[in-house]
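In response to the reviewer comment on reproducibility (Comment 2.3), we provide here a single inverse folding case reported in full, input and output, so that an independent group could reproduce the run without further information from us. The structure tokens appear first.
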């Protein structure tokens, strides 16, 4: 009825009851509840009718204010252009897909007279680069081959006086051939040529030796100064590890003044060096080779490595400082032997938990230590201003002086510290 919403009685009023069921689901008020009466007089109305859109196209605005394109209003020309554009896009896409997925027909396996093309990359090697250093130093580094009977060994060496044919290497590289009948030592140069070598002199106390070859035109290494080397300096190691001549590795100086004891089977080397430590990979065969700085100057002779037992480099290599090499090599070239300062004691490293030192095990009769009153059981803790914390540091501190130098030795005896003056002897 007008003015009332929801379901209503049909025109003409509610029809009479047609259901007379008395079941449990038929309640007494069922006749007055239209939702419980299947004969409820409800019916569907006429469908909604929208007003015809009379806006001019092709762009129209609907009832919600949205702009739309009405296709039936598009012109034939615009429709044709849109269809052509879709065709072009489809053709291009199909062509690209075919090109990317195409497969070539099988071609002959061999092409006679093939010449591969190369480009010139224009590589520039800056001064001071590893390649620049290697190019300058490799001609001054040699491989050393030692043959004693049926046994052989290899090492490395550095030309320190090309005019006279002097080459420095480690004592342990060539000591096995010294004064052995039939033994041969041969130096092999970077150009592949070789020359027989003679031992000029060797020094087991520093693990250095000098050999001589009769070959003109040798390239001499530039000798630097190890006293000017600092931790962190870039360095390059060059030698013949495992017989591989001209091997170049690089790293930095990882420590200085590292006391390292050197000895080994098959050699009379018995030395303690104050080493230049480097992480440049050094392996067996690098012994006697060059350790150079960023200018290409020789700052050390590669001598030893720390090892875990499996052999090979673990990033802890040791070189004899060039200042020591120069001093010993000059003596060997001049006289065939080298002289070292000595205190005249045997010692071992000790500590009392708060202080380290070198315990004197015995004193050589008549030695500088004996003359200065140093006794067995004394613990040496300093030489001049250099602290001594081990027997190796005592050896390095004494070897840094010259025979005849007077030094002040600080020691502990009976729990009390005292100093004595010692004039070092020669050994």
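Designed residues, in position order:
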């Amino acid at each position: 009825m007008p003015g009332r919403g929801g379901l209503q009685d049909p025109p003409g009023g509610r029809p009479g009851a047609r259901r007379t069921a008395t079941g449990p689901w038929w309640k007494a008020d069922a006749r007055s509840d239209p939702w419980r009466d299947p004969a409820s007089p409800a019916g569907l109305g006429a469908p909604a009718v929208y007003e015809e859109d009379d806006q001019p196209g092709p762009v129209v605005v609907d009832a919600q204010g949205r702009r739309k394109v009405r296709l039936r209003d598009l012109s034939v020309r615009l429709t044709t252009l849109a269809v052509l554009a879709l065709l072009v896009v489809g053709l291009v896409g199909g062509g690209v897909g075919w090109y990317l997925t195409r497969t070539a027909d099988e071609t002959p396996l061999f092409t006679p007279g093939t010449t591969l093309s190369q480009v010139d990359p224009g590589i520039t090697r800056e001064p001071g680069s590893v390649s620049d250093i290697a190019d300058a130093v490799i001609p001054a580094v040699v491989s050393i081959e030692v043959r004693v009977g049926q046994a052989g060994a290899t090492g490395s060496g550095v030309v320190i006086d090309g005019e006279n044919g002097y080459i420095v290497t480690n004592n342990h590289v060539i000591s096995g051939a010294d004064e052995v009948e039939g033994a041969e030592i041969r130096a092999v140069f970077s150009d592949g040529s070789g020359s027989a070598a003679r031992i000029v002199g060797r020094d087991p106390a520093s693990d250095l030796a000098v050999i001589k070859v009769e070959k003109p035109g040798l390239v001499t290494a530039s000798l630097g100064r190890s006293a000017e080397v600092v931790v962190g300096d870039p360095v390059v190691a060059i030698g013949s590890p495992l017989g591989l001549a001209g091997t170049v590795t690089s790293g930095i100086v990882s420590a200085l003044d590292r006391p390292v004891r050197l000895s080994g089977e098959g050699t009379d080397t018995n030395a303690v060096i104050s080493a230049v430590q480097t992480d440049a990979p050094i392996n067996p065969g690098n012994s006697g080779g060059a350790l150079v700085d960023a200018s290409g100057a020789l700052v050390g002779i590669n001598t030893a490595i720390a090892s875990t037992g499996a052999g090979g480099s673990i990033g802890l290599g040791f070189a004899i400082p060039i200042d020591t090499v120069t001093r010993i090599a000059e003596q060997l070239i001049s006289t065939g032997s080298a002289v070292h300062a000595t205190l005249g004691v045997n010692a071992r490293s000790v500590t009392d938990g708060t202080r380290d030192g070198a315990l004197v095990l015995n004193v050589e009769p008549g030695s500088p230590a004996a003359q200065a009153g140093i006794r067995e059981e004394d613990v040496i803790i300093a030489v001049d201003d250099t602290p001594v914390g081990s027997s190796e540091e005592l050896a390095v501190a004494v070897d840094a002086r010259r025979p005849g130098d007077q030094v002040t030795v600080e020691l502990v005896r009976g729990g009390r510290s005292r100093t004595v003056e010692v004039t070092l002897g020669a050994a």
